[in-house]
Amino acid sequence: MPDTPPPPPNPPALRPALPTPLQPVADPRFDEHGVRLLLKRDDRIHPALPGNKYRKLALNLERARAEGHRALLTFGGAYSNHLRATAAAGRLLGFATVGVVRGDELAHQPLNPSLAQCAADGMRLHFVDRATYRQKTTPAVLAALQRETATEDAYVIPEGGSNALAVHGCTALGEELRGRTDVAAVACGTGGTLAGLAAGLAPRQRALGIPVLKGGFLATEIRGLQRAAFGAPTANWTVDDRFHCGGFARTTDALTAFADDFEDRHGLPVERVYVAKLLYALTALSEEGAFAPGTTVTAVVTGTPEPGSAGPHS
Questions:
Q1: Which CATH class is domain 70-153?
Q2: Among 35, 94, 179, 215, which is least packed, fewest CB within 10 Å?
């Protein structure tokens, strides 16, 4: 990797706009059930690292700098917001970055807008087959990947950025919502944001996670993340696995129509991989009567639409 010095502490380029704003939304699908909808505009936290990506990366970047690392190694799929955010952080802070990408390289040529942005920000993309990718956290496979990418001395950030430091970074999200909502809801990929969000809330508030992957495994992951971060899981969160629409980065005609309609109603560009599924789920839950009249529900807007694309469609 390039022999560049570690970045300076507290770089101006990564100063976030905090706290992020709360935006009330008047929507008859909530109003008629006595439910107040707010949007927590974490997409405005930083132009290059929007939403939970800043919150999850900030303490990891600080640790990497403190330990003298000059490179970052991380993992993601072809439409990974985490890869994009890590690449941007590397560009802004002077870290070299390598992204291990799930899937065959030829299948991703030409690069989609997400991976193209990673490359434009200086990230070196290393493609691996799906079987290898599934084993990426095992010591032998990780060591082999580091040898192949010459990143033996890199700071390793897990897929999605979710580790104990990321969970601690996301507690501030819950703290910003204390006294402002009854339910704080977030779309979940690896679960780190929900784990920290729930821990930061005040008593009697609760957190709701909407997984964007199918499988029903996320609750176990979230409890594990909270144990790693705090010693024990909190009891103030749940997940609803019904709204993944077939899996990560997959959609349905109903979800697409809903997202288009939400954009038209409220003038908010809706990121399709995470945020669309969250808003779709909350609308369905409101119409099901899942929230008692008088409840304030806050949807955490964790990202912005990918430039030039709403993501893949199934």
A1: alpha beta
A2: 179
